[in-house]
Every structure is written in structure tokens, then in C-alpha cells.
TrEMBL record:
<feature type="binding site">
    <location>
        <position position="176"/>
    </location>
    <ligand>
        <name>a divalent metal cation</name>
    </ligand>
</feature>
<comment type="similarity">
    <text>Belongs to the ribulose-phosphate 3-epimerase family.</text>
</comment>
<feature type="active site" description="Proton acceptor">
    <location>
        <position position="36"/>
    </location>
</feature>
<dbReference type="InterPro" id="IPR011060">
    <property type="entry name" value="RibuloseP-bd_barrel"/>
</dbReference>
<feature type="binding site">
    <location>
        <begin position="198"/>
        <end position="199"/>
    </location>
    <ligand>
        <name>substrate</name>
    </ligand>
</feature>
<feature type="binding site">
    <location>
        <begin position="143"/>
        <end position="146"/>
    </location>
    <ligand>
        <name>substrate</name>
    </ligand>
</feature>
<feature type="binding site">
    <location>
        <position position="34"/>
    </location>
    <ligand>
        <name>a divalent metal cation</name>
    </ligand>
</feature>
<dbReference type="GO" id="GO:0019323">
    <property type="term" value="P:pentose catabolic process"/>
</dbReference>
<feature type="binding site">
    <location>
        <position position="9"/>
    </location>
    <ligand>
        <name>substrate</name>
    </ligand>
</feature>
<dbReference type="GO" id="GO:0004750">
    <property type="term" value="F:D-ribulose-phosphate 3-epimerase activity"/>
</dbReference>
<dbReference type="InterPro" id="IPR026019">
    <property type="entry name" value="Ribul_P_3_epim"/>
</dbReference>
<feature type="binding site">
    <location>
        <begin position="176"/>
        <end position="178"/>
    </location>
    <ligand>
        <name>substrate</name>
    </ligand>
</feature>
<feature type="binding site">
    <location>
        <position position="36"/>
    </location>
    <ligand>
        <name>a divalent metal cation</name>
    </ligand>
</feature>
<keyword id="KW-0119">Carbohydrate metabolism</keyword>
<dbReference type="GO" id="GO:0006098">
    <property type="term" value="P:pentose-phosphate shunt"/>
</dbReference>
<comment type="function">
    <text>Catalyzes the reversible epimerization of D-ribulose 5-phosphate to D-xylulose 5-phosphate.</text>
</comment>
<dbReference type="GO" id="GO:0005737">
    <property type="term" value="C:cytoplasm"/>
</dbReference>
């Protein structure tokens, strides 16, 4: 089984000690740092924005994987790139001109991602699969950390993997929400490449060990 890319979600970290949390991730086996941006409109919660992303980037030695849970992401993509994003994912459900959104992200030199909600069918991505570097399959309804993993995600990973292989594309599959030690192995078996984990990492007593366990699941 291939080792997954591990992207701990900073949303579950201790915001009063953000520098310390980022330094912990620098020393860990984490590959990327997942940054959840919520606007209170696309999702019923507000997280943080560009200045906090810049502050994280100032200390991070790992690429920032920015997940935009916002309406009109095209208005903010460049600002997040300038703040330090290495990859930027927009939501399918927020993008009537998805192909244009993906080109905008790629033109900046970032990896382009599309996140899809649990009810959104993976087949809707078929026509743009070659333009997508990362599909972020939401395994919870976006807006909050600490939710229960939705079991149907395994089917979606398998279906999406088939689409990617059939198209001869190199798109990576990212799983976001409720990831833990019990589902990580099954997700990788099903075809996942990237695992995002928030609460499971940051609420554990030894986050660095928890990250290593996920990496070597
Ligand atoms: O995008 C989201 C939620 O909307 C995720 O990135 C969560 O923040 C992951 O947290 P856990 O479910 O692992 O606690
Ligand atoms: Fe996320």
C-alpha cells in the first residue's frame, strides 16, 4: 500500500498558540498543512482568513493546502496564493464556471483542487478531470471539524479512482473529514492519496505520534 500524504487541518489546533502548533507540524511526518477557510455563507461557520494564513505561512516549512469553503472564490484565490498557498481547492457547488476557476489557480502556479460535498456525484467531474490536480472528497458536510465520517465515502473513492484511471489522468484523491486510524487504511486501499485529519491529530495526547501512525497506517 502506498504511503498517503498527510495533511493535518490547522482548524482543530490551539489558535492561541498557532506558532507552536505550526512548529509541531514542521517537526512531524505531516506532508502538507490543511487550511480551512469558511465564509459563513457557503458554509454555516466562519473560520479565519488571509492574515491568519500569512501568519501560518511565516512559520510553516510544509506546503499549505488551502480549502476554500467560500462563495465567489475567484475574488480571493490570488490573495491566498500571495499568502502562501501551494494548493487551492474551490467547491464544485460554489463554481458555475469551474473550468475558469481551475485555470485561474493553475495560472498562479498552484495545484488546483475541487472539493465536493457528500451529496455531489463524482461523475460531475468527468469532463474536467484532466484539469484537476486534487479532488477533495468531503467525508463530512463542510463547515465544522470533529464530525463523524460518512461511510459512503468509500464508494465515492472507488468511483472517482475509476474515472481517473479510465481518463489516464494524474489527479490525486484527498479525503477530508472524520479521518482517523480506523478508516485511514480502508481509504488508502480504496484509492485515496491524501488524508486530511483535524481533531484526530490535534485532540490526541501526542499529535506527532498520531501523524506518524496515520502516515504508516
Ligand atoms: O473542511 C473541513 C470541514 O469543513 C475539514 O478540513 C475539517 O476541518 C477536518 O477536521 P476533522 O473532521 O478531521 O476534525
Ligand atoms: Fe478542509
Amino acid at each position: 500500500m502506498n504511503k498517503p500524504i498527510i495533511a493535518p487541518s490547522i482548524l482543530a489546533s490551539d489558535f492561541a498558540n498557532l506558532q507552536r502548533e505550526v512548529e509541531m507540524l514542521n517537526e512531524s511526518e505531516a506532508d502538507w498543512i490543511h487550511i480551512d477557510i469558511m465564509d459563513g455563507i457557503f458554509v454555516p461557520n466562519i473560520s479565519f482568513g488571509i492574515p491568519v494564513t500569512e501568519a501560518i505561512a511565516a512559520h510553516a516549512k510544509k506546503p499549505l493546502d488551502v480549502h476554500l469553503m467560500i462563495e465567489k472564490p475567484e475574488n480571493y484565490v490570488e490573495a491566498f496564493y500571495k499568502a502562501g498557498a501551494a494548493s487551492i481547492s474551490v467547491h464544485y457547488e460554489a463554481c458555475p464556471h469551474l473550468h475558469r476557476n481551475l485555470q485561474q489557480i493553475k495560472d498562479l502556479g498552484c495545484r488546483a483542487g475541487v472539493a465536493i460535498n457528500p451529496h455531489t456525484n463524482v461523475q460531475l467531474l468527468e469532463d474536467v478531470i484532466h484539469d484537476i490536480d486534487i479532488v477533495c472528497l468531503m467525508s463530512v458536510n463542510p463547515g465544522f471539524g470533529g464530525q463523524k465520517f460518512i461511510e459512503n465515502t468509500y464508494n465515492k473513492v472507488r468511483q472517482l479512482k475509476e474515472i481517473i484511471v479510465d481518463a489516464g489522468a494524474s489527479t490525486m484523491i484527498e479525503i477530508d473529514g472524520g479521518v482517523n486510524q480506523s478508516n485511514a487504511g480502508h481509504l488508502i486501499e480504496a484509492g485515496a492519496d491524501i488524508l486530511v485529519a483535524g481533531s484526530f491529530v490535534f485532540k490526541s495526547s501526542e499529535p506527532k505520534d498520531t501523524i506518524a501512525d496515520l502516515k504508516n497506517v
